[in-house]
Write a structure and sequence with these properties.
The chain is an alpha+beta fold and 370 residues long. The chain is built from 13 helices and 14 strands. The protein is globular. It binds 2-oxoglutaric acid (AKG) and fe (ii) ion.
């Protein structure tokens, strides 16, 4: 939808800032540039309680996995150690950083720089990608999360691209497509190795989860997020607390913090190690592991100085496959905690609902009390 000037649609009351629907704003980047340090619209007030519950003491305990150990098949003892460490990270946090992953610093920088260039294109040039035809549209540009179903909006613009099993990508800015292709291929390979190791950590064959989820034909969604500096960061969020839909999401950012993960009911700031990849477990991993590896709830907070960019590559199962808890895990006496559903169905639910904690996963729980 073409953005209309914000002023024309604002409802102004004397006591509170205007309430403006995100679909009228069209791009929060453009809005923030025009709005300057003025109060933000009340429709972006998503924080209702003071932001005082950050567990600073836990930040240094975020697990770090040396990826080179996971691929050191010539040294089974060291690899087995890394597999156990990875299983523990999935069980205790659902979140970890990986070092020695083999992706060059240059490629990571190019991805971030081109992402910034994309968002810096004039609004007119991004119109062709406007997100108004549903979640299976290969290339979507929009703002907030899903303005049509939200009560409050989020201070974020996004580009979402389906990069696997078919590779799609915008043809601009120049060179972005090539960089994104190389990056997404490498991320898929890393995610595949992680899923093999995760499979082993659950006591299954290495190939078991890759085969069961049809990972080699799986869906990959690259989300290129831009969070402009926000004059009232204590009132708004870039993304609400949520879990991701796929198996594993791999994230990089432009050196500006903002990601928080939930651990033991408290928020933990993520301050990634230099050049590492940040990984979080998604809902499909919770379902296939029958609840052993829970998807992690996370959110993006804002600041009033810098534009933040993050690139999250979500790696999921094959779209048309019926998936639920892995059969080897539930064939003994263990009770299945999740219904089987196609990932296609699940992805649709998650992308079109109001994003909130684990609301999509809750829809496929067999016993919602769990
Ligand atoms: O920007 C971030 O750090 C979080 C992004 C995110 O959660 C997502 O794209 O699903
Ligand atoms: Fe996320």
């Amino acid at each position: 939808m073409a953005p209309t000037p914000a002023k024309a649609t604002a409802t102004v009351s004397s006591s509170e800032p205007p309430k403006i629907h995100a679909s009228h704003i069209g791009s929060i980047k453009a809005f923030a540039e025009a709005n300057g340090v003025g109060p933000i619209p009340s429709s972006y007030h998503s924080i209702t309680e003071p932001r005082d519950d950050v567990a600073h003491d836990l930040a240094a305990s975020i697990p770090v996995i040396d990826f080179s150990l996971l691929t050191s098949h010539h040294d089974p003892r060291r690899r087995a150690f890394a597999v156990r460490q990875l299983g523990k990270a999935c069980a205790d946090w659902g979140f970890f950083m990986i070092t020695n992953h083999g992706i060059s610093e240059t490629l990571m920088e190019q991805v971030i720089n081109k992402s910034h260039e994309f968002h810096n294109l004039p609004i007119e040039e991004k119109k062709e990608f406007a997100d108004n035809k549903g979640p299976f549209t290969p290339i979507r540009h929009g703002t907030s999360f899903h303005p049509q179903s939200e009560k409050v909006h989020y201070w974020r613009d996004y580009l979402k691209v389906l990069t696997h099993p078919q590779f799609n990508f915008p043809h601009k800015p120049y060179g972005f497509k090539e960089v994104a292709y190389e990056y997404c291929e490498k991320i898929r390979e890393i995610a595949r190795n992680l899923i093999e190791a995760i499979s082993e950590s659950l006591g299954l064959e290495a190939k078991s989860l890759v085969e069961y989820t049809g990972f080699d034909r799986g869906l990959t969604l690259m989300a290129v997020n831009l969070y402009p500096a926000c004059p009232e960061p204590e009132l708004a969020l870039g993304m609400p607390p949520h879990s991701d839909h796929g198996l594993l999401t791999v994230l990089i950012q432009n050196g500006i913090g903002g990601l928080q993960v939930m651990q033991g009911g408290r928020w933990v700031n993520v301050d990634p190690l230099p050049n590492c990849l940040v990984v979080n477990t998604g809902d499909q991993l919770e379902a296939v592991s029958n609840g052993r590896y829970r998807s992690v709830v996370h959110r993006a907070v804002l600041n009033n100085r810098d534009t933040r960019i993050s690139v999250a590559v979500a790696n999921g199962p094959e779209l048309e496959k019926e998936i639920g808890p892995a059969p080897e895990l539930v064939e003994k006496e263990e009770e299945a905690l999740f219904k089987c559903t196609t990932y296609s169905h699940y992805f649709q639910i998650q992308q079109q609902s109001r994003l909130s904690h684990k609301s999509a996963l809750d829809q496929i729980r067999i016993n919602p009390q769990n």
